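Lab intake sheet, docking and co-folding queue.

SAMPLE TYPE: protein with bound small molecule
LIGAND NAME: 2-acetamido-2-deoxy-beta-D-glucopyranose
LIGAND FORMAT: SMILES
REQUESTED OUTPUT: full 3D complex as C-alpha cells
PRIORITY: normal
SUBMITTED BY: R.K., bench team

The fields below were copied directly from the construct record.
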Amino acid sequence: MHPKLLSAVAFLLSCAAHVHALSPIFFECQKQKPGGISPLLGCPEGTIFVSQTDPKAHFRTIQSAVESLREGPAIILIAEGSYDEVVNISRTDPLTMLGQLPRHATLSHKPFANPQSANMNLVQIWFNNWVMTGEDDDTSAVLTVAPNNAAALIGAGTDGAPLQPVFGNVDFKMYNIDVQNRAANYAISQALATDISYSNASFYACAFASYQDTWYTGKNASTFMIDSVVFGQTDYLFGFGTAWFQNTIFANRACGGGLVAWKGFNQTYAPGNRYGAYISDSTIMRSPDANATTVTDGKCFLGRPWNDLAITVFLSTLMDDSINPAGFEPFDSARPVIMNTTYYAEFNSSGPGGNTSERVAIEHLLTAADVVAEDFTVDGVFLEHPKWIDYSYIL
Ligand SMILES: *[C@@H]1O[C@H](CO)[C@@H](O)[C@H](O)[C@H]1NC(C)=O
Ligand SMILES: *[C@@H]1O[C@H](CO)[C@@H](O)[C@H](O)[C@H]1NC(C)=O
Ligand SMILES: *[C@@H]1O[C@H](CO)[C@@H](O)[C@H](O)[C@H]1NC(C)=O
Ligand SMILES: *[C@@H]1O[C@H](CO)[C@@H](O)[C@H](O)[C@H]1NC(C)=O
Ligand SMILES: *[C@@H]1O[C@H](CO)[C@@H](O)[C@H](O)[C@H]1NC(C)=O
Ligand SMILES: *[C@@H]1O[C@H](CO)[C@@H](O)[C@H](O)[C@H]1NC(C)=O
Ligand SMILES: *[C@@H]1O[C@H](CO)[C@@H](O)[C@H](O)[C@H]1NC(C)=O
Ligand SMILES: *[C@@H]1O[C@H](CO)[C@@H](O)[C@H](O)[C@H]1NC(C)=O
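RESULT FIELD (auto-filled):
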C-alpha cells in the first residue's frame, strides 16, 4: 500500500477507536470542543449545559438542571464526568439528555455495544443505594422517570404496587450515558439502575450496570433501547410494561434467577396489551468484568416468570455458553412449575447457548412464519409506530 494511503488508513482507524455510534441530529452538539469554543456550538437553541468543571456550565449537577426546566421540550448536554447523584425526571414534556462525545469523533463510527471491548461513555451517572428489608425497590434507582412517587413504586406480589391514573414523560431520550448502581460488586439485594414507570423512554449507546434488578420498565411504560449494554446477574431485566431491546449486549456478571423476570397482565386490565420484554439482534454473554473465579458456564437462565402471565421473546440473538440449555426455569420452589399462561419464545438464536434442543417444553420455538404471524416487531408490540423513538440513530 502507498505510504500516504497507509497513514490515511491509520488515521481513520485511530478515529474509529474513539467513536461511538451516534445520532446525526445531536452529533455536532455532543462533540467536545477545543478551549475557547462554546461547548454548546452545534446544539439546538436553549440547550442546557451541565459540567462539574467548565465555567460555562449552567449547572454542576444533572438533577439541578432537570429541576430548572420550565414547560416545553428540553435538551440537556452533559460534559465528560462521573456524576455521583440520583436523577429523577417527573416532568411530562419531552426531555433529551446527551452525553458528550470525544472531540475527534467522526461520522465513521462503530457500534457502542461491541462484545470485543467493554466500552464506556465519557459520562457516568452513578449512585450506590440498595434495598433494605421493607423498602420498595424504587428507593434504589439511580435514574427514575415517573410522574410521581406513587407511580415509581414497584411493590410486591403478582400485581405489584396499585395502578395509578397518571402518565409521566411522553418522550424521554438518553444518548451516550452510563447509568451505574455501584452498591456492591455482587448481588447485595435489589439495586436498580433505572425505574421507568408510566412514561415513554428510549436509550441510544448507553450502558446500565448493577447486579440485581438493573433495568425496570414499570406499569404503562414503553421503553426502547438500542446499541447499549446492560450488566447484571439476577433478574436484571424486570418490569410490567413493554420493553424492546435492539442490538444490545446483556453481560452476565454471574448467574442468578433469570436474565429476564417479567410480570404480565391479563387483557382485562389493558385490552390488547402486549406487555413483555422483547430482545432482538442482541448478544448475551459472560460479562468482560465478571470475577475470574465466578463460574457462568451453563448456569445463566434466559428468564423466570415473576408472575404466570410473563412474556419474554428472543429474536435472532447470539448466546454464549453461559446460557443453561433449558433456557427458562420456574420462579422458585414455592412456584415449581412454569405455567402455560406464560409466553416464552425464541427465534433464530445462535451461539453455543442458542442451541434450543434441550429447552423447557413450555417454550415456543418459533419459525419465521410464526414471527410474522405474531407481529414481533417494534410497531407490533407497541401497537403503533412509536413517535418517541429516534429512527435516525446510526448503528
Ligand atoms: C421525583 O420527583 C417527584 C416530583 O417532584 C416526586 O414526587 C418523587 O417523590 C421523586 N421521586 C424520587 C424517587 O425522588
Ligand atoms: C394505563 O393505566 C390505566 C390506569 O390508570 C389503564 O386504564 C390503561 O389501560 C393503561 N394504559 C395502557 C396503554 O397500558
Ligand atoms: C385479570 O386481572 C384482574 C386484576 O388482577 C383480575 O381481577 C381478573 O380476575 C383477571 N382476569 C382474568 C381473566 O384472569
Ligand atoms: C471474586 O470471588 C472471590 C471468591 O468468591 C472473592 O473472594 C472475591 O472477593 C471476588 N472479587 C470480586 C471483585 O467480587
Ligand atoms: C438469524 O440471525 C442472524 C444473526 O445471528 C442474522 O444474520 C439472520 O439474518 C437471522 N435470520 C433471520 C431469518 O432473521
Ligand atoms: C394449561 O395447563 C392446564 C393445567 O394446568 C391445562 O388444563 C390446560 O389444558 C393447558 N392449556 C394448554 C393450552 O396447554
Ligand atoms: C445441540 O445440542 C444437542 C444436545 O446436546 C446436540 O446433540 C446437538 O449436536 C447440538 N446442536 C448443535 C448444532 O450444536
Ligand atoms: C407512549 O407510547 C405508546 C406506544 O408508542 C403510545 O401508544 C402512547 O400514546 C404514548 N403515550 C404518550 C403520552 O405519548
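REVIEWER NOTE: The CA atoms of residues 182 and 318 lie 28 Å apart.
SIGN-OFF: pending second check by T.M.
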